[in-house]
Design goal:
Blueprint: H1 20-26, H2 29-32, H3 36-52, H4 58-77, H5 89-101, H6 103-106, H7 114-150, E1 155-160, E2 163-169, H8 170-195, E3 197-198, H9 214-220, E4 225-226, H10 230-235, H11 238-265, E5 272-274, H12 292-315, H13 330-350, E6 354-356, H14 358-366, H15 372-381, H16 386-403, H17 412-416, H18 426-430, H19 432-438, H20 447-462
Parallel strand pairs: 3-4
Antiparallel strand pairs: 1-2, 5-6
Helix pairs in contact: 3-4, 3-7, 3-9, 4-5, 7-8, 7-13, 7-20, 8-11, 8-20, 11-12, 11-13, 12-13, 15-16
The structure holds arginine.
Length: 466
């Protein structure tokens, strides 16, 4: 950063220099320089429109366009000198443009304010960020669904209250993850609809009297339409809040998935072994292999929620129209986008690193009299009212407990003490395989249904546009 006092582009009415403390306090360029590509794209669209309405000559437009392109190249090569005294990305680029091309550069900001400029940049940035996150989510979902198809018949315990409840298939469990992510994806696409409108032309707040064509710049920037009200266009950041909210919820989902992986990796569960590339050791306990990656994903959920809170609080009680408070929106917004993308990408890579212990999963599924409900259903299908069947099976479970056996390990004669209708075919119902196979309805855990649901999910993923 240059140290010398810069003349401010807005300095006309000022005679004294900015206080040294304020200079760094109000500068945002360290954060918002990330918007340079979108800023330049917005400026070129605006300049083209200025040419069309006669504010710029063709030569002036060409000078502006090529000047901005060389600035973009310099930024990308790391050869651009950012200056805190010029506050933000917008004024840095504009000042440099004028330094390079002379008077034509001074005309670029006609009929525009940094207020509509920054709102435009943010929307262009967020549109890209959403597309990138959606593509990453699709890749993660594809990995999950393919694994679900491969594990459609893998038995594991299903839990309620983290107590073994009824057997399910691992494929079914994975498809539940996919359902959560499918809604997250839909929320992001829906948010994109409201992101994708152009605030450009709102100018400072009241629009411009110079005969601007907002539809032209909107079309040029591939926005689906224009913000209908200039005051609203430059002031509201609800589109960023919506995105942060969608990310917060996505991160909640990822934290749930991460928590399950952490549990499954513990020796108490022993369902999953994570490959060395996705675990870390302990500096003191030589035997340790920790699932830090999953823990970090779980932990990063906190950042996403902090960001959402920050954006909501930033907007709260702001009077119309633009207020400088909004400069504070970049850090949380960028962080939410970066965090979500990183977590989704890491998860996609982590998934194939999960080695399942099928034997441990099946054993755990069979413990805890997990097919007791199946015995009750068996009695129901032989005419017993469910409450009576429930009672009889409860007694049978008590009998098995006292004997130190599982319900499914009791002899036929022992079971028949509790209901005379029980026959030899009861053992099909009592087996974990029988239990999952019986749940063959829509949304059920039966292997055949899981395979079918995985195929349908893959088809939905393939038909996505992003
Ligand atoms: N850096 C500012 C922001 O991010 C740009 C807009 C400044 N507008 C103003 N009137 N000071 O919000």
């Amino acid at each position: 950063m240059r140290k010398k006092q810069q003349k401010k582009p807005w300095g006309g009415r000022f005679s004294a220099p900015t206080h040294a403390l304020l200079e760094s306090f109000s500068a945002s360029v360290a954060v918002d320089r990330r918007l340079y590509r979108h800023d330049i794209r917005g400026s070129i669209a605006h300049a083209r429109m200025l040419m069309k309405i006669g504010v710029l000559t063709e030569d002036e437009f060409n000078a502006i366009e090529s000047g901005l392109k060389t600035i973009q190249d310099d930024i990308e090569r790391g050869a651009f000198e950012w200056d805190d005294a010029l506050e933000d990305v917008h004024m840095n680029i504009e000042a440099q443009l004028t330094a390079r091309i002379g008077d034509a550069g001074k005309k670029l900001h006609t009929a525009r304010s940094r207020n509509d400029q920054v709102a435009t940049d943010m929307r262009l940035y967020l549109r890209d960020a959403i597309d990138q996150l959606c593509a990453a989510l699709t890749a993660l979902q594809r990995a999950i669904v393919q694994r679900a198809a491969a594990e459609a018949a893998t038995i594991m315990p299903g839990f309620t209250h983290l107590q073994s409840a009824q057997p399910v298939t691992f494929g079914h469990h994975l498809l539940a993850w996919n359902e959560m992510l499918e809604r997250d994806y839909a929320r992001l696409r829906d948010c994109r609809v409201r992101v994708n409108v152009s605030p450009l032309g709102g100018a400072a707040l009241a629009g411009s009297g110079l005969g601007i064509d907002r539809e032209m710049t909107a079309a040029e920037l591939e926005f689906a339409g224009v913000c209908r009200n200039s005051l609203d266009a430059v002031s509201d950041r609800d589109f960023a809040i919506e995105f942060a909210a969608a990310v917060a919820l996505l991160m909640v989902h990822l934290s749930r998935v991460a928590e399950e992986i952490v549990l499954w990796c513990s020796s108490a569960f022993g369902f999953v072994d994570l490959s060395d590339a996705f675990t870390t050791g302990s500096s003191i306990m030589p035997q340790k292999k920790n699932p830090d990656v999953a823990e970090l994903i779980r932990g990063k959920c906190a950042r996403a929620h902090g960001n959402l809170s920050a954006l909501l609080m930033l907007m709260k009680a702001q009077p119309l129209a633009y207020n400088r408070d909004n400069q504070e929106d970049k850090t949380p917004l960028f962080d939410s986008a970066d965090t979500a993308l990183a977590c989704v990408e890491v998860f996609t890579a982590l998934l194939p690193a999960m080695k399942l212990n099928h034997r441990r999963m099946r054993e755990a599924a069979a413990r805890g009299h997990a097919t007791a409900t199946d015995l009750a259903d068996y009695l129901v299908s032989r005419g017993a009212p469910f409450r009576e069947a429930h009672e009889a099976v409860g007694k049978a479970v008590g009998f098995a407990e006292a004997k130190g056996a599982q319900l499914a390990e009791l002899k036929l004669a022992e079971l028949q003490q509790f209901n005379a209708a029980i026959a030899a075919d009861v053992f099909d119902a009592l087996s974990v395989e029988g239990s999952v196979a019986a749940r063959a309805h829509t949304g059920g855990t039966a292997p055949a249904r899981v395979s079918e649901a995985a195929r349908a999910a893959l088809k939905r993923l393939s038909s996505r546009s992003a």
